[in-house]
Amino acid sequence: RQFSRLTSMAAVVALVAGAGFATRPGPSSRHEHAPLVAANVGEPTKRFTLTASIARDGAWAFNGQVPGPELAVTVGDVLEVTLRNKDISRGVTLHWHGYDVPNDQDGVPGVTQDAVMPGGEFVYRFRADQAGTYWYHTHSASDIGVRKGLYGVLVVRPTSITGVDVTVPVHTLGNVLLPSPTVGTVAPGTPVRLRLINTDSTTHRYAVTGGPFRVAAIDGRDLDDPSPVRDKALLLPAGGRYDVTLVAPAALHVDGRAVWSSSPSLSASPSPSWPVLDPLSYGAPSPVPWSRFDRSFTLVLDRGLDLRGLLPRYAHTVNGAADPDIPVQVVRRGEVVRFTIVNRSLVVHPWHLHGHHVLVLSRDGKAATGSPLWLDSFDVLPGEVWEVAFVADNPGMWANHCHNLPHADAGMMLHLAYA
Ligand code: C2O
Ligand code: CU
Protein backbone atom coordinates (compact mmCIF):
# COMPACT_ATOMS: atom_id res chain seq x y z
CA ARG A 1 0.00 0.00 0.00
CA GLN A 2 2.72 2.41 0.94
CA PHE A 3 4.84 1.40 -1.97
CA SER A 4 2.01 1.96 -4.38
CA ARG A 5 1.37 5.38 -2.90
CA LEU A 6 5.02 6.25 -3.35
CA THR A 7 5.07 5.19 -7.00
CA SER A 8 1.87 7.06 -7.71
CA MET A 9 3.34 10.14 -6.05
CA ALA A 10 6.51 9.84 -8.12
CA ALA A 11 4.39 9.47 -11.24
CA VAL A 12 2.51 12.62 -10.35
CA VAL A 13 5.72 14.57 -9.94
CA ALA A 14 6.95 13.29 -13.29
CA LEU A 15 3.65 14.38 -14.78
CA VAL A 16 3.93 17.82 -13.27
CA ALA A 17 7.49 18.16 -14.50
CA GLY A 18 6.50 16.90 -17.93
CA ALA A 19 3.67 19.39 -18.13
CA GLY A 20 6.20 22.19 -18.32
CA PHE A 21 6.27 23.24 -14.69
CA ALA A 22 9.60 24.01 -13.15
CA THR A 23 11.11 20.83 -11.82
CA ARG A 24 12.01 20.35 -8.22
CA PRO A 25 13.38 17.32 -6.45
CA GLY A 26 10.37 15.07 -6.04
CA PRO A 27 9.78 12.71 -3.20
CA SER A 28 11.21 9.83 -5.16
CA SER A 29 14.63 11.41 -5.56
CA ARG A 30 14.59 12.65 -2.01
CA HIS A 31 13.58 9.18 -1.03
CA GLU A 32 16.68 7.63 -2.64
CA HIS A 33 18.98 10.04 -0.84
CA ALA A 34 16.95 10.24 2.35
CA PRO A 35 19.21 12.04 4.81
CA LEU A 36 19.50 10.47 8.24
CA VAL A 37 20.14 13.90 9.74
CA ALA A 38 18.24 16.86 8.39
CA ALA A 39 19.72 19.94 6.80
CA ASN A 40 21.91 22.00 9.07
CA VAL A 41 19.84 24.56 10.92
CA GLY A 42 22.51 25.26 13.51
CA GLU A 43 23.68 23.45 16.60
CA PRO A 44 20.79 21.82 18.43
CA THR A 45 20.03 23.47 21.76
CA LYS A 46 17.34 20.95 22.82
CA ARG A 47 17.77 17.25 22.15
CA PHE A 48 15.18 14.56 22.68
CA THR A 49 14.96 10.87 21.89
CA LEU A 50 11.59 9.25 21.32
CA THR A 51 11.57 5.48 21.22
CA ALA A 52 8.38 3.87 19.99
CA SER A 53 7.51 0.48 21.39
CA ILE A 54 4.62 -1.75 22.32
CA ALA A 55 3.92 -1.30 26.01
CA ARG A 56 2.94 -4.13 28.34
CA ASP A 57 -0.74 -3.15 28.22
CA GLY A 58 -0.75 -3.23 24.42
CA ALA A 59 -0.59 0.55 23.94
CA TRP A 60 1.94 1.92 21.47
CA ALA A 61 4.05 4.34 23.45
CA PHE A 62 6.88 6.83 23.07
CA ASN A 63 9.42 6.21 25.86
CA GLY A 64 6.93 3.91 27.55
CA GLN A 65 4.26 6.56 28.13
CA VAL A 66 0.96 7.73 26.62
CA PRO A 67 0.92 10.59 25.74
CA GLY A 68 4.63 10.62 24.89
CA PRO A 69 6.97 13.03 26.65
CA GLU A 70 6.08 16.71 26.36
CA LEU A 71 8.64 18.41 24.15
CA ALA A 72 8.91 21.89 25.66
CA VAL A 73 11.21 24.39 23.97
CA THR A 74 11.65 28.14 23.81
CA VAL A 75 11.56 30.39 20.77
CA GLY A 76 15.07 30.43 19.34
CA ASP A 77 15.89 26.85 20.25
CA VAL A 78 17.07 24.41 17.63
CA LEU A 79 15.21 21.19 18.23
CA GLU A 80 16.75 17.82 17.50
CA VAL A 81 14.54 14.79 17.97
CA THR A 82 15.86 11.30 17.37
CA LEU A 83 13.07 8.88 16.59
CA ARG A 84 13.75 5.20 17.20
CA ASN A 85 11.39 2.34 16.52
CA LYS A 86 11.86 -0.67 18.75
CA ASP A 87 9.08 -2.99 17.63
CA ILE A 88 6.20 -1.24 15.85
CA SER A 89 5.87 -3.37 12.74
CA ARG A 90 3.68 -0.80 10.95
CA GLY A 91 6.54 1.71 11.04
CA VAL A 92 6.69 5.08 12.79
CA THR A 93 7.32 8.70 11.81
CA LEU A 94 6.95 12.04 13.58
CA HIS A 95 4.62 14.66 12.14
CA TRP A 96 4.65 18.04 13.90
CA HIS A 97 0.96 18.82 13.82
CA GLY A 98 0.45 22.55 13.26
CA TYR A 99 4.14 23.42 13.33
CA ASP A 100 5.07 24.55 9.84
CA VAL A 101 8.39 22.75 9.39
CA PRO A 102 10.47 22.55 6.19
CA ASN A 103 9.01 19.80 4.03
CA ASP A 104 11.73 17.19 4.65
CA GLN A 105 10.95 17.30 8.39
CA ASP A 106 7.20 16.78 7.98
CA GLY A 107 7.18 13.06 8.74
CA VAL A 108 4.83 11.75 6.07
CA PRO A 109 5.89 8.26 4.98
CA GLY A 110 6.03 7.71 1.25
CA VAL A 111 6.06 11.47 0.68
CA THR A 112 8.78 13.15 2.75
CA GLN A 113 10.60 10.12 4.17
CA ASP A 114 10.43 6.37 4.62
CA ALA A 115 8.64 5.09 7.68
CA VAL A 116 11.12 4.11 10.40
CA MET A 117 10.88 0.35 10.74
CA PRO A 118 11.82 -1.72 13.83
CA GLY A 119 15.50 -1.20 14.62
CA GLY A 120 15.67 2.00 12.55
CA GLU A 121 15.95 5.66 13.40
CA PHE A 122 15.44 9.11 11.89
CA VAL A 123 16.69 12.44 13.20
CA TYR A 124 14.46 15.52 12.91
CA ARG A 125 15.89 18.98 13.25
CA PHE A 126 14.23 22.33 12.99
CA ARG A 127 14.30 25.79 14.43
CA ALA A 128 11.64 26.66 17.00
CA ASP A 129 10.64 30.13 15.86
CA GLN A 130 6.83 29.78 15.90
CA ALA A 131 5.67 30.21 19.50
CA GLY A 132 2.54 28.23 20.23
CA THR A 133 0.85 24.97 21.09
CA TYR A 134 1.38 21.98 18.82
CA TRP A 135 1.53 18.24 19.04
CA TYR A 136 3.40 15.42 17.39
CA HIS A 137 2.17 12.06 16.20
CA THR A 138 3.11 9.17 14.00
CA HIS A 139 1.95 9.51 10.40
CA SER A 140 2.62 5.87 9.57
CA ALA A 141 -0.60 3.86 9.79
CA SER A 142 -1.68 6.97 11.69
CA ASP A 143 -5.24 5.78 12.18
CA ILE A 144 -4.03 2.89 14.33
CA GLY A 145 -0.82 4.46 15.59
CA VAL A 146 -2.34 7.60 17.08
CA ARG A 147 -5.28 5.73 18.55
CA LYS A 148 -2.86 3.33 20.24
CA GLY A 149 -0.87 6.18 21.76
CA LEU A 150 1.93 7.41 19.48
CA TYR A 151 1.49 11.12 20.11
CA GLY A 152 2.58 13.85 22.48
CA VAL A 153 2.73 17.60 23.06
CA LEU A 154 5.09 20.07 21.40
CA VAL A 155 5.03 23.49 23.00
CA VAL A 156 7.13 26.45 21.91
CA ARG A 157 7.07 29.04 24.67
CA PRO A 158 8.02 32.68 24.34
CA THR A 159 11.27 33.68 26.02
CA SER A 160 9.52 35.21 29.01
CA ILE A 161 6.41 33.81 30.63
CA THR A 162 4.55 34.90 33.70
CA GLY A 163 2.46 32.67 35.88
CA VAL A 164 1.54 29.10 35.17
CA ASP A 165 1.66 27.69 31.68
CA VAL A 166 0.39 24.14 31.29
CA THR A 167 -0.64 21.87 28.47
CA VAL A 168 -3.84 19.86 28.62
CA PRO A 169 -3.89 17.19 25.93
CA VAL A 170 -7.13 15.29 25.70
CA HIS A 171 -7.40 11.90 24.13
CA THR A 172 -9.79 9.05 24.61
CA LEU A 173 -8.94 5.38 24.72
CA GLY A 174 -12.15 3.43 24.51
CA ASN A 175 -14.25 6.10 26.20
CA VAL A 176 -11.87 6.93 29.02
CA LEU A 177 -10.37 10.40 28.95
CA LEU A 178 -6.64 10.10 29.48
CA PRO A 179 -5.29 12.39 32.18
CA SER A 180 -2.17 14.46 31.64
CA PRO A 181 0.38 14.64 34.46
CA THR A 182 -0.32 16.54 37.65
CA VAL A 183 1.05 20.05 37.52
CA GLY A 184 0.48 21.55 40.95
CA THR A 185 -1.34 24.23 42.89
CA VAL A 186 -1.37 27.91 42.08
CA ALA A 187 -2.11 30.92 44.28
CA PRO A 188 -4.97 33.38 43.71
CA GLY A 189 -4.06 36.13 41.29
CA THR A 190 -1.71 33.91 39.33
CA PRO A 191 -1.95 34.30 35.57
CA VAL A 192 -2.67 30.91 34.03
CA ARG A 193 -2.32 29.75 30.46
CA LEU A 194 -4.02 26.46 29.62
CA ARG A 195 -3.04 24.93 26.33
CA LEU A 196 -5.94 22.69 25.30
CA ILE A 197 -5.07 20.10 22.70
CA ASN A 198 -7.50 17.73 21.03
CA THR A 199 -5.51 14.73 19.88
CA ASP A 200 -8.63 12.71 19.13
CA SER A 201 -10.28 12.07 15.77
CA THR A 202 -13.53 13.70 16.83
CA THR A 203 -14.58 17.10 18.20
CA HIS A 204 -14.20 17.74 21.94
CA ARG A 205 -16.22 20.22 23.93
CA TYR A 206 -14.56 22.08 26.79
CA ALA A 207 -15.98 24.29 29.49
CA VAL A 208 -14.02 26.72 31.63
CA THR A 209 -16.18 27.39 34.62
CA GLY A 210 -16.27 29.86 37.47
CA GLY A 211 -14.70 32.97 36.04
CA PRO A 212 -13.85 34.97 32.96
CA PHE A 213 -11.23 33.75 30.53
CA ARG A 214 -9.82 34.69 27.18
CA VAL A 215 -8.96 32.58 24.18
CA ALA A 216 -5.49 33.97 23.55
CA ALA A 217 -4.52 31.78 20.61
CA ILE A 218 -5.92 29.11 18.34
CA ASP A 219 -3.79 26.57 16.49
CA GLY A 220 -0.59 28.24 17.66
CA ARG A 221 -1.49 31.72 16.36
CA ASP A 222 -2.32 34.62 18.68
CA LEU A 223 -5.68 36.31 18.33
CA ASP A 224 -5.90 40.11 18.18
CA ASP A 225 -7.37 41.68 21.28
CA PRO A 226 -9.46 38.77 22.57
CA SER A 227 -12.01 40.00 25.08
CA PRO A 228 -12.81 38.14 28.29
CA VAL A 229 -15.79 35.81 28.10
CA ARG A 230 -17.49 33.56 30.61
CA ASP A 231 -19.92 30.67 30.52
CA LYS A 232 -18.95 29.80 26.99
CA ALA A 233 -18.10 26.35 25.72
CA LEU A 234 -15.15 25.76 23.43
CA LEU A 235 -15.36 23.31 20.57
CA LEU A 236 -12.03 21.90 19.54
CA PRO A 237 -11.86 20.09 16.22
CA ALA A 238 -9.74 16.97 15.88
CA GLY A 239 -6.13 18.11 16.01
CA GLY A 240 -7.01 21.67 17.07
CA ARG A 241 -5.57 23.71 19.97
CA TYR A 242 -6.96 26.60 22.02
CA ASP A 243 -4.81 28.58 24.45
CA VAL A 244 -6.98 29.87 27.28
CA THR A 245 -5.72 32.55 29.66
CA LEU A 246 -7.24 33.52 32.98
CA VAL A 247 -6.33 34.89 36.37
CA ALA A 248 -6.85 32.45 39.20
CA PRO A 249 -9.50 34.11 41.39
CA ALA A 250 -9.26 31.50 44.14
CA ALA A 251 -6.82 28.75 44.93
CA LEU A 252 -6.55 26.88 41.68
CA HIS A 253 -5.31 23.36 41.62
CA VAL A 254 -4.09 22.11 38.32
CA ASP A 255 -4.37 18.39 38.27
CA GLY A 256 -4.53 16.14 35.30
CA ARG A 257 -6.91 16.94 32.49
CA ALA A 258 -9.01 19.05 34.78
CA VAL A 259 -8.16 22.20 36.65
CA TRP A 260 -9.72 21.83 40.03
CA SER A 261 -10.70 24.53 42.45
CA SER A 262 -13.80 26.13 43.78
CA SER A 263 -13.48 28.28 40.69
CA PRO A 264 -12.55 28.36 37.93
CA SER A 265 -12.26 24.85 36.69
CA LEU A 266 -11.88 23.23 33.37
CA SER A 267 -13.59 20.13 32.24
CA ALA A 268 -13.34 18.37 28.95
CA SER A 269 -16.64 16.58 29.14
CA PRO A 270 -19.39 16.52 30.11
CA SER A 271 -19.94 20.25 30.02
CA PRO A 272 -22.88 22.56 30.54
CA SER A 273 -24.94 23.37 27.50
CA TRP A 274 -23.52 26.87 27.18
CA PRO A 275 -23.35 28.66 23.87
CA VAL A 276 -20.21 27.85 21.96
CA LEU A 277 -17.67 30.60 21.47
CA ASP A 278 -17.55 31.33 17.75
CA PRO A 279 -13.92 32.06 16.87
CA LEU A 280 -15.01 33.64 13.56
CA SER A 281 -16.52 36.60 15.37
CA TYR A 282 -14.13 36.86 18.33
CA GLY A 283 -11.33 39.38 18.76
CA ALA A 284 -10.50 42.55 16.85
CA PRO A 285 -11.06 42.35 13.11
CA SER A 286 -8.60 43.43 10.47
CA PRO A 287 -9.10 43.36 6.71
CA VAL A 288 -8.14 40.37 4.58
CA PRO A 289 -4.62 41.12 3.35
CA TRP A 290 -5.34 40.06 -0.24
CA SER A 291 -7.70 41.45 -2.81
CA ARG A 292 -7.24 38.67 -5.33
CA PHE A 293 -6.23 35.04 -5.42
CA ASP A 294 -3.69 33.58 -7.81
CA ARG A 295 -5.26 30.17 -7.65
CA SER A 296 -8.50 28.67 -6.36
CA PHE A 297 -9.36 25.08 -5.65
CA THR A 298 -12.59 23.45 -4.63
CA LEU A 299 -12.64 20.34 -2.48
CA VAL A 300 -15.96 18.54 -2.39
CA LEU A 301 -16.03 16.08 0.51
CA ASP A 302 -18.37 13.16 0.12
CA ARG A 303 -18.77 9.44 0.49
CA GLY A 304 -18.43 6.92 -2.30
CA LEU A 305 -17.99 3.29 -3.04
CA ASP A 306 -14.43 2.07 -3.46
CA LEU A 307 -14.46 -0.81 -5.93
CA ARG A 308 -10.71 -1.24 -6.25
CA GLY A 309 -10.25 -3.95 -3.62
CA LEU A 310 -11.54 -7.50 -3.52
CA LEU A 311 -14.63 -6.33 -1.70
CA PRO A 312 -16.35 -3.01 -2.28
CA ARG A 313 -16.10 -0.67 0.71
CA TYR A 314 -17.18 2.84 1.52
CA ALA A 315 -14.57 5.48 0.85
CA HIS A 316 -14.42 9.09 2.02
CA THR A 317 -13.86 11.01 -1.17
CA VAL A 318 -12.60 14.37 -2.36
CA ASN A 319 -13.99 15.52 -5.72
CA GLY A 320 -15.27 12.01 -6.31
CA ALA A 321 -11.96 10.21 -5.82
CA ALA A 322 -10.17 8.51 -2.96
CA ASP A 323 -6.48 8.47 -2.02
CA PRO A 324 -4.20 7.70 -3.84
CA ASP A 325 -6.26 8.61 -6.90
CA ILE A 326 -7.04 12.24 -6.02
CA PRO A 327 -5.08 14.52 -8.36
CA VAL A 328 -2.30 16.51 -6.70
CA GLN A 329 -3.03 20.22 -6.47
CA VAL A 330 -0.13 22.26 -7.81
CA VAL A 331 0.78 25.77 -6.72
CA ARG A 332 3.74 28.04 -7.33
CA ARG A 333 5.80 29.63 -4.63
CA GLY A 334 4.49 33.05 -3.63
CA GLU A 335 0.96 32.53 -4.86
CA VAL A 336 -2.07 33.38 -2.74
CA VAL A 337 -4.21 30.25 -2.86
CA ARG A 338 -7.86 29.90 -2.00
CA PHE A 339 -9.55 26.66 -1.00
CA THR A 340 -13.31 26.27 -1.01
CA ILE A 341 -14.20 23.20 1.01
CA VAL A 342 -17.70 21.81 0.58
CA ASN A 343 -18.98 19.02 2.80
CA ARG A 344 -21.66 17.10 0.93
CA SER A 345 -21.54 14.15 3.32
CA LEU A 346 -23.48 13.49 6.51
CA VAL A 347 -20.50 13.55 8.86
CA VAL A 348 -18.01 16.13 10.17
CA HIS A 349 -14.65 16.35 8.42
CA PRO A 350 -11.94 18.09 10.46
CA TRP A 351 -9.70 19.49 7.71
CA HIS A 352 -5.92 19.71 8.11
CA LEU A 353 -3.38 21.14 5.67
CA HIS A 354 0.26 20.38 6.42
CA GLY A 355 3.01 22.99 6.28
CA HIS A 356 0.76 26.08 6.21
CA HIS A 357 -1.77 27.97 8.27
CA VAL A 358 -4.86 29.09 6.39
CA LEU A 359 -6.78 32.31 6.97
CA VAL A 360 -10.52 31.74 7.32
CA LEU A 361 -12.43 33.97 4.86
CA SER A 362 -15.94 32.68 5.38
CA ARG A 363 -17.97 29.84 6.77
CA ASP A 364 -21.22 28.96 5.07
CA GLY A 365 -21.37 32.27 3.23
CA LYS A 366 -20.83 34.33 6.37
CA ALA A 367 -17.61 36.33 6.27
CA ALA A 368 -15.27 36.01 9.23
CA THR A 369 -15.66 39.17 11.29
CA GLY A 370 -13.34 38.59 14.24
CA SER A 371 -9.58 38.54 14.66
CA PRO A 372 -7.80 37.09 11.63
CA LEU A 373 -8.10 33.38 12.25
CA TRP A 374 -5.13 31.35 11.07
CA LEU A 375 -5.92 27.69 11.46
CA ASP A 376 -4.40 24.36 10.63
CA SER A 377 -7.38 22.26 11.78
CA PHE A 378 -11.08 23.12 11.39
CA ASP A 379 -14.34 21.22 11.45
CA VAL A 380 -16.32 21.31 8.21
CA LEU A 381 -19.79 20.26 9.31
CA PRO A 382 -22.22 18.37 7.07
CA GLY A 383 -23.58 20.74 4.44
CA GLU A 384 -21.07 23.49 5.21
CA VAL A 385 -18.85 25.45 2.87
CA TRP A 386 -15.59 26.96 4.16
CA GLU A 387 -13.48 29.44 2.24
CA VAL A 388 -9.88 29.72 3.40
CA ALA A 389 -6.72 31.14 1.87
CA PHE A 390 -2.99 30.95 2.41
CA VAL A 391 0.29 32.08 0.94
CA ALA A 392 2.28 29.34 -0.75
CA ASP A 393 5.51 30.05 1.10
CA ASN A 394 6.73 26.61 2.15
CA PRO A 395 7.79 24.56 -0.87
CA GLY A 396 7.41 20.81 -0.93
CA MET A 397 4.86 18.03 -1.22
CA TRP A 398 2.27 18.44 1.55
CA ALA A 399 -0.49 16.20 2.84
CA ASN A 400 -3.94 17.82 2.91
CA HIS A 401 -6.48 15.61 4.61
CA CYS A 402 -9.33 14.91 6.94
CA HIS A 403 -8.01 14.54 10.51
CA ASN A 404 -10.64 12.05 11.46
CA LEU A 405 -7.88 9.54 10.86
CA PRO A 406 -10.12 6.60 9.90
CA HIS A 407 -11.55 8.89 7.18
CA ALA A 408 -8.07 9.76 5.94
CA ASP A 409 -7.27 6.07 5.87
CA ALA A 410 -10.48 5.45 3.89
CA GLY A 411 -9.47 7.85 1.13
CA MET A 412 -9.86 11.42 2.36
CA MET A 413 -6.28 12.49 1.79
CA LEU A 414 -4.71 14.44 -1.05
CA HIS A 415 -1.52 16.38 -1.65
CA LEU A 416 -0.43 19.89 -2.42
CA ALA A 417 2.70 20.24 -4.52
CA TYR A 418 4.83 23.21 -5.55
CA ALA A 419 5.66 23.45 -9.24
CU1 C2O B 1 -1.99 15.60 12.51
CU2 C2O B 1 -1.44 14.67 8.56
O1 C2O B 1 -1.70 15.10 10.55
CU1 CU C 1 -13.47 13.15 7.62
From TrEMBL:
Keywords: Copper, Membrane, Metal-binding, Oxidoreductase, Transmembrane, Transmembrane helix. The keyword RNA-binding does not apply. Residues 57-159, 319-417 form the Plastocyanin-like domain. The chain crosses the membrane at residues 3-22. The keyword Transferase does not apply. It comes from the Bacteria. This is Multicopper oxidase family protein. The chain holds residues 170 to 588 of 589 of the full protein.
